[in-house]
Amino acid sequence: MAGLNDLSLPRERDQLAALFEMRWRLFVRNMTRDEAKVSFVLWLTGRLLVLLFSVGLGVIAAFVLYFMQSRGQVLSPVFHTVFVGWQLMNLFRGSLPQGAEAELYRFPLRFRTYVLLWLSAGAFEGLTLIGSWICLGMFVGIVAGGGNVLRSVIVMLLFYALNLFTTRAVFLWLGRMLASRRARDIVLILSSLLSIGPQLLRMHHERIAGWMQKISLPPWFAYVLHIAPGYLAAKALQPANDMSLLLLAAWTAATAGVLLLGLHRSFRGEESHEFRAAASDSIAARKRSSDQRDGPLVGAIAACEWDKLRHGGAAIYASLSPLLYLVFFGLRLARGPLGTWIVPIAAGYLALSLRSVNVFGQDGPGVQTYLLAPVPLRTILLGKNLFAAMLYIAQVLLGSAVLMLVTHRIGIAPLVFTALWMVAYACAAFTLGNQRSLKRPMLVPTGKVTLRDVRQARRSGGGGGWMNLLLIFGGAAVGGAAIALSFWLHMPVLAPIVMLPCAIASVIVYRNSLRSSAYNGDILQAEALMNVARTA
User: Fold this and answer.
1) Transmembrane region positions (predicted)?
2) H/E segment holding residue 347
């Protein structure tokens, strides 16, 4: 509907006022729920912390640029670092503007209004705030170091706009390129692997520095650096380099043109990645006699979960990511005495909590087939929990194998403690997660194609919100308390003894939750599954 007839559309100011009023009413109505209030407080707290962190980085940038400018040092490395770091960090996080995609297509907007909303969306995201304050700090440092005020204002505004336009343009056109699921999966995995590059550099910086000294750069590399935005911005600060200022302005204008071209195609409804998967798996109806056990049905549901995992690259990466972070972040900790206790359970810790609190997230419209099948809800939940438990066990076993390869030693007490903690944490996660999945289900959009949407689909596999945080930190607190007590009393066997009653109690609570009337009554079961189906 956007832009069907610009002559009949209201003024741009009226359009913005109407959209802001609609967003405000939705926000006020959403605040009637207690969970929304808690989520808003957490979001506001996070934004304040990010703001303080951003201001700190801006102050550091101001001092760095002040000393470099006052001493006549070359500023291009700083500009190169800011430009490349801004783009890479946004790419790793997939920070597309929130609320600036298909939500705007339903309204009859002018193109200028659409562009303004698209660019302003995500202004309070963490990396945008960090980049803004760093650029402001760089400007203050340059002016305090003796730079020309007017020229510094022009250069820093162009440099900031270039960073902002480049980020938006990259994600806008990247969404058009990732029209196939395989391309999305490959880009997601590669970008996630690159995101752990700084840790690898920190661990092996001496070896990498030795390799870099042996590599001879080609002549064209220096030429490319001289026309890069960072070099042009640094040279444009000097009054005698008007050509660099013009080239920087040309860079900004060209990037803005590419962005406007992509936005215009999106505005006209030419997005190539707007599609919904047309194929659907046919599921034969299964009938069960009254005396038949749940075993075959539970196994069939677990097999369906395995098929969904096997055909989804994002889901595969979400399952392997704890092991990747264990390898690159936990190897140093694993060599210490404490690492033999906490590294094995860390392998599958986060993945289980994310998977357990949103068990119907990847079913989509297919969740309605559970309404047609004569299968109790407890059987469905048991099958999904069984698959999550098997995946969790595999992750922990692989993590323990990595630990043994690194340390060549692991005691009996840590292994027993790990097994008991796994049982206690898994049953608690499944108990809370099953109820959460039925009351507050969250759809995982498997048809999304942008990098941020794929990452968000991986993160939204947990849904959870504050309950997910409670599950993560609560499980860590119980396990950490048992480990701390055993270290304090110098009794390694004490941690498994403390964890044993916790595991037994967790199993009993989980078993009773599956037998509750909420999972077996026909009316309540239908209402719960319809609640899940509405999210699809």
Assistant:
1) 40-68, 113-143, 149-174, 215-233, 245-263, 315-334, 386-406, 412-432, 465-487, 493-510
2) none
Tell me whether residue 94 is exposed, middle or buried, using C-beta atoms within 10 angstroms of its C-beta: 0 to 12, 13 to 18, 19 or more.
buried
Radius of gyration of the chain (CA): 27
- HSE at residue 260, side-chain half, CA atoms within 13 A, is 10
From CA 146, how far away is CA 143, in angstroms rounded? 5
Name the residue among 315, 377, 382, 301 with its Cα closest to residue 531.
Answer: 377
Alpha carbon separation from 287 to 292, 384, 393 (Å, rounded): 10, 19, 31
Q: Name, in order, each residue with C-beta under 8 angstroms of 358's C-beta and a sequence gap of 6 or more.
A: 433, 436, 437, 441, 442, 444, 460, 461, 462, 463, 464
Structural tokens at position 507: 């199993």
Place of tokens 């026909």: 522
Q: Which two tokens stand for residue 321?
A: 């990511």
Provide the 3-class DSSP secondary structure of residue 492: coil
Tell me the whole-structure pTM to 2 decimals: 0.53
Identity at 27, one-letter amino acid code: F
Q: SS3 sequence, 264-312?
A: HHHHCCCCCCCCCCCCCCCCCCCCCCCCCCCHHHHHHHHHHHHHHHHCC
Alpha-carbon distance of 85 to 63, in angstroms, equals 19
Task: For residue 334, give both structure tokens.
Answer: 């694993």
d(CA 351, CA 320) in angstroms, rounded, equals: 9
| 347/396 Cα distance (integer angstroms) | 5
Output the CA–CA distances (angstroms, integers) from residue 128 to 87, 114, 119, 123, in the order listed. Answer: 11, 20, 12, 6
Measured at the alpha carbon of residue 421, what is the angle toward residues 415 and 422, in degrees to the nearest 5? Answer: 90
Classify 337 as helix, strand or coil: coil
Q: E strands of 105-165, at which residues?
A: none
Helices (H), 94-125: 111-120
d(CA 156, CA 138): 8
> Which tens digit of pLDDT belongs to each residue from 246-285?
888 999 999 988 888 888 777 776 554 443 333 333 333 3
Question: Which comes out higher in pLDDT, residue 113 or 372?
Answer: 113
Question: Among candidates 29, 61, 229, 243, which has minimal Cα distance to 143?
Answer: 61
Q: How far is Cα 525 from Cα 331, in angstroms, rounded to an integer? A: 46
For residue 58, pLDDT over 60 is answered with yes
Mean pLDDT over 77-101 rounds to 71
